Each structure stands twice: as structure tokens, then as C-alpha cells.
Amino acid sequence: MPGLSLGLSLRARRRGGIAGPVAAAAISAIEADGWSARWATGTPPTFAPDAAPQTIAVARMGFDAEARPTVHAATRLFTRRRRLPWPDQTSDTPAVVALDDYVYATDTIAGVANLSTETSPRPVAAWAMPHRRVVGDTIPLEVVAFHRDARGGRMVAAVRFLASDGATVVSQVVAATTLSTRPGDRQPLPVFACALDVSTLAQGLVTVHAEVYPWIGDAAAVLRSAELAAPREFSARYFLRHPALHAAPPLAYVAAAGNDASGTISTVPATASAAPFATVKGAIDALQAALSATTGLDGAIVRIGAGTFPLASAAAARTQRVAALTIERDPAVPRASAIVTWGAAGFAPRLSTGFTGPVATGCLRFRDLTVRRTGAAFLSGDGAARLELQWEDVAFDNNGVSGNWLTRSDNYFFGVAFTGLAGTTLAAGANGEQRIMRGVAADLADAMYENWVTLACTLTRPGTGAIRDATKGAIAFQNRFLNPNPAGSPLAISASGAGDTVTGFWAVQNLIELTRTGAGPMVRISSDAPAFGNTDHCGLGRNTITGQGSAGRYNVFYDNDTGGVRRTHRRMWHQGDVGVQLNVKGDVDIGEAAALGHLAYQHGVGCRGNLTQFRVATATAHVELQAWPGVRSLIGTSTTARREPGFVDYRGVTAAGAGAGGGDYRLQPGAAARGLVDVAVLSHDLAGAPRTPDGPDSAGAYV
Fold first, then answer.
1. Which domain-ending residue is among 114, 140, 172?
2. How many whole angstroms separate alpha carbon 438 and alpha carbon 143?
């Protein structure tokens, strides 16, 4: 059965969800791949999933909003017969049908043998807040999380936050996402958030963990931060519970008229500001002398007055036990007037002794001031002790210096506005990582950036989003990528070698406004050779991308390597995107019968409610395109004439040439992308407008 072999779909006629289950006896077994079913007798009918859906009931192990085990009732949709490999791709298997999504080994279908070997993957999650802070009786915590079995207006069923002093554990379960109240975000950020009550914990180190519960899956599908160790991963976060220190931190002021010999440290702002230090180094040295035997530099604050103050390295190691040392502006002066600089010489603060295990890295926080880079020298950790650099609500003048500044150190950005970026300043480096970019506003001047955890940013002229360790995946959520480099791909990931597997790359609710001509793909997931790499549990959803024809397209889930190197793509999820053109390649494209690693995605498994504005360059069945695009999907029918999603004001690239930019990509009433998806998975759109938690939802980044 050729079926919908060109990947074209009529507008869904049913708005109330899927109906009309067939009898369980219609199929005899779920195949081992989890997305194919064996028809019981005879030849399967010609399915019309959008017009006349046929489904089967499935009981699915999972979790509820209280993180308790439960069983969810669901349905799987029969989409079309599974096609044969090249060179017989125009014919279908006699009795094997494709499903709209996976059946897991933990699922049950009455009267059907479930031979699936697929299981629910663990969610993909990241901490979204700073850590290494002094706290009192509460700890503010935020997590973003994603999973392919999303529903009910959120990606996962619940997140349990836990904190321990080594003897006592306190916890709180959070089910709903809310918009973060943290300042500095360029777009509102939906998060799982709580203010965890730690008043019953002892004073000292507090270790924070989280458990993320998917809607579907068994205990093995729960993501637990306690099972991960690398700081880049969703691992433990550390705080110092010390109510007195939290209420009254030690202060050292720095001013142009200060004196390092007579500066005063005090917990009283008026006392400390009356006797400032002349240099940042002088202030930190004095804090070290006064506090090394007690709290160390934990929670201490250096306040910068009006003027420009260079950062200078320490001669000896300084004591830090858990919490960050903060350098911030004097509240009495504007941010633009309080300036610290480095670059002509390197800066090593040497926060490297006295740690409370398992804390083993220094932590320096720059907050609410101006930072100016004056040269290519590094910010450095100390020997075996790496340095965490936390930049929070900072005006950062990179001053046109190329290359990053990391050696034995790693960056964490929260609400940073960059100017003067040049070269690969924010790219992946051999000696340090960009571990999170949240609320960053920057003109990247067409250069690469490290997209490990990129949240609520506005990046102008971004190049390719590269990842230092691609096998561990990445998250891009709630960002605007404006006027990207036509030769780059802001959302891109590929493993570096044959046999590597990219696990957990998720790009959700981003806007890519392509305005320049001559562009290639804006989204690449394991695409053209020789970029090898399998993928597992990678997701795309609620993204809006502008472009024209093939400019701005997707190149995703390819299996087109030569020389016998095959790729496999499993447990993918692609729902509710408004894209440009969708390309997937494998056996038919290259003429190799074994190149079937793309076949699940090519049959629309895990796909739902996507709209593409243009069709692929060829109309030949199964060349570059899906055999079926997913229920309620609308695929472009022309390489030149746009299928209109219904934007309020399109200002991207067109057939006539470059676009002006600054478009409004919300959806007009009656827009084709409105109500296109029958499963709501997010609480808010890119602008912070509420999405409907139940029933149809709009495709794209905006409602």
C-alpha cells in the first residue's frame, strides 16, 4: 500500500481526539521494535488516520502528579503498512502495520502479545538556578524537564525535590510548571519550582537532589540526580545552610579613594562602606585573613564602587568551604559605573582550599555590575581545583577579544547582556565548559556557541550550536535565535564518531527567525555524512522557524553514511513544530537496503501536529521525506509557494530575498497552526501566554 507516501496530510477533521478503537484481535503481536504490529489475519486495510482513525487500547504503567505509580489508559493509532526496504520501497509488508508511537515492554494490550523490547526512557532535565549559595530556612530550586510521553500541559508528571544534611532528608513534590520569577530572562521561563523548607536541617552543607517522574514508565524510567556525578549533568547541587551568615554576610567595599591597609570588613553596610579598600585583591585578601579559620570566604561580598578596578591573582590559596564569594556593585552606584576588568593579565582567585566534601571546586560569583575584558588572558582555576564562574545580571563588555577565557574553569550565565563578542568567545573549549546560558542577550557575530543548557536567551546572529560532549545531549528551551548565520545551525547535534549515541537532545519552544538568503538547515540532528552518530530520546516541539524553500530546513535522523557504517534512531519525539522543510534520509536516498536506522521516524513514529511551509525538493516517494508525517500534520505542497501557518506578521526570508526581521510570529485567529496538536505539553508559550492544558494546542512557539 503506497498510502500517503509523499508525506502529505489533509487537515485533521476530528478536533476532539482519536476515536473508534478496533478489536484487539485485529493484531496478534507488537513487534520487538515497539512501533510495528503484526496483523492477525488477512491483509490490513488502507488506513486514513486523520479522517477515519483506527486505534487500539493500551494500559500503560506510569506515574501521577504525586509521583506515585499508576496505570494510564491510552490508545495507539494504526497509521499505514510498514514499507519494504530499497529497492522495493514502493511496496509494503503484507501484514505489518506502523503505529503512531511506541508501545513499551511495560505496556499491556488485551489479547495481544507484547514483544516490544523498548522501554520508557528517563526524562531529560537540567537545573535552571544558581547554586553554591548561603541560605537560611528555604532553598529556591528550579528544574526544566522533558520526556516523549508528555501530556496534560507538562512534559513530566512530577518532580520531587530533596535536600539532606547527611542525616535528615526533606522533600517536596511539584507537579505543575509556573513561570519563573527570576529577573534577567529574555523570555518567560516555565519551570518546576519550589522554595524547599530546610529549617529542620542542621547548619552546614546541604546537598540537593531531584527525581523526575515521567507520565509513562516504570521505576527504571525515573531520572534521579543522585545517580549522576558529572557537574555538567543533572547531578547534585550544593548549598550552605547558615541563617546568621545569610542574614548578615561579611562585606568589603572597594572605592577609588580606598586604602588596602585601612579597609574595614563588617556585616554592617554603613561601617564597611565608610572604610573601603583600594583594590579587589586587597578586599579579598582581608576577607581571607579575617574568615579563613571560621566560615572562609563562603557568602562574603566584595562591593565595587564607582570606577574601574582590575582583577589580580592571589599569591596563596584562599579558603572556601561551600558557598560562592560574590563580587557585586555598591548599591549606591549605577551598574554602568561599577566596573571590574581583566585580560591584560590572567586572573586566578585561588579559591582552592578548605572545601567541605564532596564540594571540590572554587566558586566565584559576579553579580549586578559591569565586567570589561581587556585582553586574551584567562580566568583560571587552581591546580586540581576547578573554578565555577557564575555571571548573574551582569553587563559584560567583551571588548572585541576573540576566544574564550577558560582554563580549569567553567561558566554559568544568568541574565547576562553581552557586547563586543568576537570569534568563538562562547564556544566549547578544551579547558572549560559553558555549562548553562540562561537569560543571555548577545550578538554572536555569526560565531559558534556551546548549546548545552540554553534557556530563555535572545541570541542574534548565532552560528552553529556545538556541544563539547554530544553523546550527553543538550537542551535548548524558550530561546529566540534572530538572523542566524546562514551557514550555521543554531539547533544542531551530531556525535563525533561511528557508534556514538546522542542521548537526550531536546529543542523545545524556540523561535529561529532566518532573514538572510542562501541558508542551509537551521535544525540538524545526526544529519549528513560524515557526521556519524545514533540518537536516542531526542525531541523537537513547539518551535517556530522561518525560511524559504530549503533555506531554514530540518535535516534530522539520517542514516546515509557510506562504507557500511549504519545509524539507528530510537524513541524520537517531534510534535507541534512550525518548520520550513523537513528532510530525512536513508535507504532510498543512497540506494542501500541496510540503511534503515531512520525508518521509525520516516514512518512518523512519535510525530504529531507538525506544519511545514514547503515540501522537499523531490516528489519521489520516500526520498528525503517521511512515508507518513504524523497525525494532524500539515506538510507543504510546493517548493516555492508557502503553506501559510497564519503568523501575525512574517518578516523572515522570502522568495523575493532577505527579510527585515522583527516579525510577530503569534498566530492569527483561524490560523492553520492553531489547534493543530491534540496533546498539550507546555503550560505557557514563548511570550508567557498560557497554553490550554487539555485538548487541542497550537503548533509553533506562540498561541
1. 114
2. 12
